[in-house]
H(+)/Cl(-) exchange transporter 3-like (Priapulus caudatus), 1356 residues
Amino acid sequence: MEEHEPLLDVMSELATSASAFQRLSTTNGPAAAAAAAAATRQMSDDEIIDVSLASVGGGSGGSGGAQAEPPGSDNESDFGAHSKSYGTYNASSEDTDLPLGVGQYEDFHTIDWLRDIARDRLRHRHIVKKKKESCWDSLKGWHDAWSGWMCVLIVGCAAGLTAGVIDIGANWMFDIKNGICPSQFYFSREQCCWDSNSTFVQQDCPEWQTWPNVFGATDAHGVWYYLLQYFMYVFWSVFVGLLAVTLVRQFAPYACGSGIPEIKTILSGFIIRGYLGKWTYVIKSVTMMMAVSAGLSLGKEGPMVHMACCIGNIISYLFPKYGKNEAKKREILSAASAAGVAVAFGAPIGGVLFSLEEVSYYFPLKTLWRSFFCALVATFVLRSINPFGTSHLVMFYIDYNSPWFFFELIPFIILGVFGGLVGAFFIKANIHWCKYRKASKLGLYPTAEVLAITLITAVISFPNVYTRINTSELIAELFQQCGPEDSTDLCDYNRNFTNVNHGSESAESGHGVTRALWQLSLALVFKLLITIFTFGIKVPAGLFIPSMAIGAIAGRMLGVAMEQLAFHNPEWFIFKDMCNRNEACITPGIYAMVGAAAMLGGVTRMTVSLVVIMFELTGGIQYIVPIMAAVMTSKWVGDAVLKEGIYDAHIYLNGYPFLDSKLEFTHTTIAADVMRPR
Amino acid sequence: MEEHEPLLDVMSELATSASAFQRLSTTNGPAAAAAAAAATRQMSDDEIIDVSLASVGGGSGGSGGAQAEPPGSDNESDFGAHSKSYGTYNASSEDTDLPLGVGQYEDFHTIDWLRDIARDRLRHRHIVKKKKESCWDSLKGWHDAWSGWMCVLIVGCAAGLTAGVIDIGANWMFDIKNGICPSQFYFSREQCCWDSNSTFVQQDCPEWQTWPNVFGATDAHGVWYYLLQYFMYVFWSVFVGLLAVTLVRQFAPYACGSGIPEIKTILSGFIIRGYLGKWTYVIKSVTMMMAVSAGLSLGKEGPMVHMACCIGNIISYLFPKYGKNEAKKREILSAASAAGVAVAFGAPIGGVLFSLEEVSYYFPLKTLWRSFFCALVATFVLRSINPFGTSHLVMFYIDYNSPWFFFELIPFIILGVFGGLVGAFFIKANIHWCKYRKASKLGLYPTAEVLAITLITAVISFPNVYTRINTSELIAELFQQCGPEDSTDLCDYNRNFTNVNHGSESAESGHGVTRALWQLSLALVFKLLITIFTFGIKVPAGLFIPSMAIGAIAGRMLGVAMEQLAFHNPEWFIFKDMCNRNEACITPGIYAMVGAAAMLGGVTRMTVSLVVIMFELTGGIQYIVPIMAAVMTSKWVGDAVLKEGIYDAHIYLNGYPFLDSKLEFTHTTIAADVMRPR
């Protein structure tokens, strides 16, 4: 009986561990082969320049990365090895008995999920067995049971802290383009004006000095003032852009880009040493603030996910259960990526769903709960830091509550089509440009490229007020409804102010609106084009915010058009029932919101997570049907034009061995097709 | 070459279909065995009374249900059968060639996922092959490709329609307890008063006649009036209760209960004939309105999921791809259950997540998108019907926007602990009672049981205003903040009305609040106890609303206590920084909301989906951290006391062969433990 027991255990363990392998059955054979194929191919890619430059991590680097185990043989031999190690398992040799030691995977190899999970079960069994022996061992057992939760707790705290610091830092660095707080130079404009007793109108804060002020120009409407401001804007942009690219290239080549394609690949079971290391983390944090401050058309939300995963990776080494087991570590990384989105958008549930829908490969319910907890902690810590000085987390809070009407579904669906088409166009153009960069000499001069893009962006951005301001501010402004107190161009309606209570009544657009629409359409074209060239340069760059901005601009423009249509044609049958002259029946802000969701959907092809993120961002719970309709349309249209989203496209572009779980292979597929995508 | 191709195809098909089997590796061996074991065991259970009574469906019923294939043998023999059928596959014999024909599974058998998916691939391949032959065939191919989306579209529409009709019907039937609209007897109170020109104060609608009015009693404060009202209330309750149980017993025994445990089992691959049939659907729709109208402590949200799944099942027969393939049909059922929650709560995203987290077994991304679309359509249709007469879908919309403070996390976590403990107590007590019912003679008299419960509920409910009203109205009232215009007991504060603008200032509680608290505490105890006995009787009965009501009462009481604590002790250090006398710093409504979430979490052990449902219900996006904290605590505490949620507990109670994907087996588990839970 004593002899038979281990065999029984092995069987039950294999049976139960099978339940943990949701998608692993595919991973084992073809993915390992794909890994080998892709790793070999990758060597010839330009991308490998970065890889071989990597000075971080202890891996074997580029040259050793091309060898993988022969794909066919690993299955059976591994099983044999397992049963042997099960049989000879010895309590005292916990570390030495592991088949390949701790750093058992080489760089650019695919992990063996089955073996890692089996190893974890062995470890666990050992702990459970010893638990009754002494008090210390039972404490160790307790620690082991809770270490997953502890780990995500720490990851959540660290992610929240990082996000808080970066938010404050990026704000300060963006403001320093325009001026400085002479008393405390490390204050952002808002912090500088907090001390001020003056009223809170934007222009009147004597403590804050614009650069022309500092250099002695006082006439805010003079040419000299404008030129000085322009020069400082461009100068600072180029300076921090250059600094960012230099830092990235010198210290952490992996810190560039959004990181989400690579994280998807890593979570699917690939090893890229140093990609989630501490240097990547530090350099990406610093350079991300710089990239935002340089005014480039990029967001800090995608990179936040990468940084949260870096945190997850670093913290997991405190818990050998996760740090020494690549398969288990991926559970922490899934939770960390949820925390990343949670702090990036203040959207904890959106983060969990993003991790589930977009990045994770293996997402059992236990990981769902841990991700939930991790996102909760991260959001909580960020809220405690309160980087924006508002008591709520909602970034683009909308304060209107106007209903939407059924006929509006038509423009919403048009926005969805727009998002799908433009999103697909964007992906195609961006991939085309990235391929060109790899093939041509351009790829050899990343610094020059960043310099050029920064210069062009800054020079073109400054004259247009909608591109000059921070992109998130632009989105927030586009989402808003015009109240009677708003005096911006976008809200310049010929209103009749005798009746103050009906501030939101329908009105004819004034000259300001026309001017704003012109500027917005220029901004739309510019943002779309420059983002194509920006996503892929060697600085940290996220896509969420630029995509949302493009969609929001288009949406707002359509919204204003609809509004004016309804105002000038109140007798049309679609408007007659719904609208009356005294109340605004069309809110352009809703269109901006829907447009932003549609465009983001077209670019990333997210669905559920995107809708949740949108309403966590805005609080607009009653617009869920329009947002869902637009996102669904956008996904359908986008999928019809181009099958994959931007992240998958970049995965294929870089030749990562990623076996998409969404892919369905048709019946004439042969194994080679699966193994070699593209 | 021609000979080899089929073999290659088979291989690639098996490889790719393996990717579709997320959790199937476990289902195949142990679940089939568990099915056999459980089905055998079930025969001795009392529950089988219902099963053998079932007059619906064409299955072999109870007696034939105990036989299953020998668990060990099916794996290899099936594979053999497959390769044979692959080899001999003939285009013209699509229907006859299927291994066991259309109704190939017997009642109470577990389906063979692998075979069904393989069959679907065969069918698909056949269509793809023929596609190029003629225009008609290519049209058929197109229809086949889109039939999944078409199917969920129709399911969504039907679910939305059903929900609209039921909402209107239940409203009317609930109002008829109190009175009638003589001009149009089929109008609910609200509809009746729409025509009225009188102001919209609750008491003043001459069109609506209470029963005492009808019988000639005019003095609304007289004893006679009260007694007449009481009598009619009890009489109507007992009458509709009796009608409901008779209908259920006569026509559709499967229509009782919430249906969620059975749907979980069905989705995990079990066959219960007639459980999702048209009779169940019709009878459940009708009797659910009656059960709600009988004033029983139950909700119509859980049954709505069951009814949506019935719709899914019925509609799937329009599309042979789904109707004739049990494995594929489950994809539609997953989407349908999402639509069910979506229309029950007006929470489309919550529905998708509920389907993912709670009921579904196999949930690939394609099903996620379809569920999303199905929920969207259902929500849209329901909104078009607009059963509540409000333009937004949010059921318990909260209109306050007051912040919460960090120290409040302590009471929120206390609510979480309360939810976890009381939830676990509720499950234990309810399971205990259900076991007693099965074991004793009580189970033989379901009609008498319903009669008794209805009578007791009605007699006790009427005197207490908080139990007399509809449970959803109670929840809505508890979630609200007191404004200066509110004159209910709960809002009876000794306010200083000289300053009208500060309506929400902190104030001492008046006598009304004390009275309300007393009544609420009685209601709490009563609801908790009566729900234990109610959940399990032979009428349709959901648990969401009663659980939320219990939690909301507890939360509101704690909230008022905190509020008064802060008012009377403003010098305490936790209150000193946060609160000042002129502004209310504690909103009892938030506590009610958090309490409702915590209690529902304790009973069902949902996490992410629950949080999303809560904020789709209330629109309270800025209270996401409190709700998440309470739900997480509640889950932890609940799991510590009792491992399974109410649905899993009922699955075990009824002996369904359900292999929980959340279960993790420890290392000493032997196969028999997995096969025989309990």
Notes: The longest helix of chain B spans residues 135-175. Chain B has a mean pLDDT of 78. The first strand of chain B starts at residue 179 and ends at 180. The CA atoms of residues 44 and 414 of chain B lie 43 Å apart.
